[in-house]
Amino acid sequence: MTKRDFFILILKLFGLYSIVSVLFSVLPGSFSVIVPEFRFTSILFFIGIIIIVVGLFILLIFKSVKIVDLLHLDKGFDEDKIDLGNLNSLSIIKIGAIIIGGLLFLNNISSFINYLVYAFKVGQTGFGPENKNIFQLVISGLNILVGYLLITNYAYIAKILSKEEITK
After folding, report:
1. What is the torsional sign of CA 31, 37, 43, 45?
2. Closest Cα partner for 157 from 99, 100, 94?
3. pLDDT tens-digit profile of 56-90?
4. CA atoms of 133 and 151, how far apart (whole Å)
């Protein structure tokens, strides 16, 4: 594997991690702030966040070759090759997808259990549930689901992310 291929893979994995973490942490947090103050400026703020997130995702995933060329990330090394043993680019993407999925799963399982216990307590005591806690329960549950799907479907994700650009 060349240094260029390595940096392209790193950018794609960072793009995957960024889109997953933003979709399930930043956007729900922004949405919960916007809903009580349903004004035109808050809607524009939310749309702006979505445009920036999608733009960065497209840039990191689909234009990673141009980013490496623009920033000259593959220049200035003694050797052009990286010896990773039997690992090829597809294997590295698979490992990255498993790590990202594992981090999502492990980082959200405790908060999911916490919000689930709280919702059960509120249901048993008769007090009305707070919308914020139910919202956070759903978001942490979605994070766990996406983490699980990343772990179980790592081969499919690796096929999607390892296009012909890497071998160029």
Report:
1. negative
2. 94
3. 888 888 888 898 888 887 777 767 777 777 777 78
4. 27
